[in-house]
Amino acid sequence: MHQALKLHQGAISELSQYNPLDLFLGSKERIRKATKDLFITPQNNFRVFLNDVLILRGLGGGTRKTDSHMPQAFEERLKSVVDAHKGHCTENLFTLVAETMHKSRVLDQLLEVQKFDNFDIEGAIH
Q1: What are 48-106's pLDDT values in tens digits?
Q2: In 2-104, which residue ranges form alpha helices assigned H by DSSP?
Q3: Which of 92, 94, 112, 125 is most buried, judged by most C-beta within 10 A?
Q4: What's the pLDDT at 75?
């Protein structure tokens, strides 16, 4: 709903296809989709670091869709760390992230910790 409001107000140019549930439903394919959706429309504070250097950043809610030169520049930066045929480094990164998150079960652990929150954001303000 907040994204719909931001779209209506002109703060963003389109709705993100990212759905947080894709991360937490336990499917590698859904985790991969979520990662790719964050990359395509990085309105959700999506950031990628390489050797402690920020190489991709969303602008925290106001950014537009990843522009046409960004995927090529990102692909070039990944070539040194992701083994892939030309043009497939980014896709392989999405797969690697999904495999790692799925196998490590880190999202399951995060979900368990979040269940300890008795107040949620609406209650915390009071």
Answers
A1: 888 888 887 764 444 455 455 677 888 888 888 887 787 788 899 899 999 999 999 99
A2: 2-9, 20-24, 28-40, 70-78, 89-104
A3: 94
A4: 82
- Of 87, 94, 28, 21, the C-alpha closest to 56 is 94
Q: And the tokens for 83?
A: 């083994």
Cα–Cα dist 94/106, whole Å:
16
Written as six digits, the tokens of 104 are 């490590």
Query: Does the predicted model carry a pTM greater than 0.85?
Result: no
Contact present, 43 and 61 (Cβ < 8 Å): yes
106 burial type by CB count under 10 A (0-12 exposed, 13-18 middle, 19+ buried): exposed
- Calculate the alpha carbon distances from 49 to 31, 56, 79, 112, 118 in Å: 19, 7, 14, 26, 33
pLDDT at position 39, please? Answer: 85
Q: What is the dihedral of CA 114, 120, 125, 126, to 10 degrees?
A: -120
